[in-house]
Design a protein that fits this description.
The complex is a heterodimer of chains A (247) and B (304). Chain A has six helices and 16 strands. Chain A has 247 residues and is an alpha/beta fold. Chain A is globular, with a radius of gyration of 18 Å. In chain B, β8, α3 and β9 form a beta-alpha-beta unit.
């Protein structure tokens, strides 16, 4: 879905999100977060990627071109590019592909080589493949039912690629998806000592730090550090070494 | 121009609309999203003697026209509050009410003693009603004698007005309010959240990590209004009404039912400027209905 909004189009960074008040009514009551999927600063628009999962997204399916919606954003801390990164591997689990097109564009502009690994249940859930290919990124697909690309989890072709790689020191892993998928991604960064960032999908109340409803546990903490950070203002993107995802 | 200024004992507010504890952080989070000076006051996130991590996720879950939360009083603790949070708050052109949490009467007394000598605080709100912690919390406002005794203990060290925040999870909230009054409270604020519960039928786990949680939002407004009306008609104490207020109509219902002031809670999560919009709506109402002061509207509910 494309939304015309000049300030967000101008100021958003890859990995940041917007918080939509989907309806003026009481259901859904709270805003719902969506990653900025792509943006065009000159054109004054940005896009979000979504699918029908509940009452709110069902209402969104009835939006028509020209409708107005109340949007708060850009929110949160997005992806950042560590110095010395020459090659980026972007991994999206399911709808976790959402923030990756924007990130991919920026990486390619910065002269970083980008490879994209996408995993979904089936071909009908695959999104943005044409976009990545047109942008000049290599795309590897895995579907659980084998309807496109390799059959199985996306971690399998990813692991193969990482084992083959000779330049892991300058390789960096960016991933977004459901919690179980991100846990697997964090394991990979640890096993192969490769740097990585994860973008979390967490239930949020407000999106800007006042409800304190979206905690994520720190992996290692100094005695003076709190046990939790907040996904909305400290993330949604975290260094893979920093977070301990709970089941 | 109607006069919206509001007095609650020695507490003077520029208007009767506050933002509720736990729904506005420590103010700074909403910088740029709201004109703080338009608010009657800010009630801070609870402050306890030591920092608290709060409960594990999931902490929130949305239900029709409302939400469940179990944050568990996550807060920075009184020392960090004074060092890092209060300096910003006291620079704002609005009243700052510090919400105090504790497990025991001693802890409430210690936190208030620590706050006493700090400038920039207008009043204390004692959180006797958090449903999501194992110790203290709810139990402090479920028996009138306990509420009275803890209020009395805190009153001996507090030079500023004391507001006691009450739970609706009792048989007769007016009896608890009477206990607060007898203990020396200057006002009561109600309601804190209702105890609620939701289950994920796929996993058969509660939707919230701690199981039961606090239920808030527009759905609870009629319950909150009934509790406020009960206290207003039974106890001679100023009331700050809370519960599902999303705009001027809701706020005016509480005021007409007997609340001297109101707090906006869950609605801040959707729009932190709900409070200032509510003030504007109350002002327009006063003009239309020839109220010269908002005080004239307080408790003005008419019989059939």
């Amino acid at each position: 879905m494309r939304l015309a909004c000049l300030p967000i189009a101008r100021h958003a960074h890859p990995g940041q999100f917007v918080n939509l008040k989907i309806s003026d009514g009481l259901v859904p009551l709270l805003r719902k977060p969506f990653s900025v999927c792509r943006r065009n600063a000159a054109g004054g628009w940005f896009e979000i990627l979504w699918k029908i999962v509940g009452a709110g997204t069902r209402m969104m399916s009835k939006y028509r071109r020209g409708d107005s919606v109340n949007v708060l954003g850009p929110l949160g801390k997005g992806f950042f590019l560590p110095a010395g990164t020459e090659r980026a591997i972007l991994v999206g689990g399911g709808l976790g592909v959402a923030p990756l097109p924007f990130l991919c564009e920026e990486l390619l502009q910065a002269g970083v080589q980008a490879e994209v690994f996408l995993g979904t249940r089936g071909q009908n859930e695959l999104c943005m493949v044409d976009f990545f290919e047109a942008a000049g990124a290599q795309v590897v697909i895995a579907t659980e039912d084998g309807s496109s690309g390799c059959r199985g989890k996306v971690t399998e072709p990813l692991l193969e690629e990482i084992r083959r790689s000779r330049n892991l020191a300058s390789t960096y892993l960016f991933s977004c998806g459901p919690t179980a998928f991100l846990k697997a991604m964090i394991d990979i960064t640890e096993t192969f000592a490769v740097g990585g960032q994860v973008s979390l999908e967490t239930m949020m109340g407000c999106g800007f730090g006042i409800c304190v409803g979206c905690p994520v546990q720190r992996k290692k903490r100094r005695p003076d550090e709190a046990r939790f950070q907040l996904t909305c203002i400290d993330g949604p993107v975290f260094d893979a070494r920093e977070v301990e995802l709970l089941a | 121009m109607p006069d919206l200024s509001t007095k609650i004992g020695a507490l003077h507010l520029k208007n009767p609309v506050l933002v509720a504890s736990g729904t506005f952080g420590y103010g700074k989070e909403s910088e740029g999203l709201v004109d703080f000076a338009g608010l009657g006051g800010i009630v801070t996130k609870s402050v306890s003697l030591k920092p608290r991590d709060g409960n594990p996720p999931p902490r929130i879950f949305e239900v029709p026209a409302g939400m469940l939360n179990s944050i568990g009083l996550a807060n920075v603790g009184v020392e960090t509050f004074l060092g890092e949070k209060l300096p910003f708050l006291r620079g704002l052109d609005t009243s700052i009410i510090v919400n105090v949490a504790g497990s025991t009467a001693d802890e409430f007394v210690q936190v208030v003693e620590r706050l006493e000598n700090e400038p920039g605080i207008s009043a204390y709100e004692l959180n006797f009603s958090c449903p999501n912690v194992k110790e203290g919390g709810l139990a402090l406002s479920q028996e009138a004698a306990v509420t009275q005794e803890v209020t009395r203990r805190v009153k001996t060290v507090a030079s500023r007005p004391l507001i006691v925040k009450l739970t609706p999870n009792v048989t007769r909230v007016s009896e608890i309010a009477q206990g607060a009054l007898d203990g020396g409270a200057d006002a009561v604020s109600l309601i804190n959240t209702l105890v609620g519960f939701a289950i994920n039928i796929k996993t058969r786990r509660p939707q919230i990590h701690t199981g039961t949680a606090g239920y808030s939002g527009p759905a609870i407004k009629p319950v909150a209004l009934a509790k406020v009306y009960e206290v207003a008609t039974h106890v001679q104490i100023p009331i700050i009404g809370i519960g599902g207020i999303s705009g001027p109509t809701d706020a005016l219902e509480f005021i007409i039912a007997g609340a001297t002031a109101v707090q906006i809670g869950t609605a801040n999560f959707i729009n932190p400027a709900t409070g200032t919009a509510t003030v504007a709506g109350i002002e327009a109402y006063c003009r239309e209905h020839d109220f010269h002061t908002i005080a004239e509207a307080v408790g003005s509910v008419q019989p059939w």
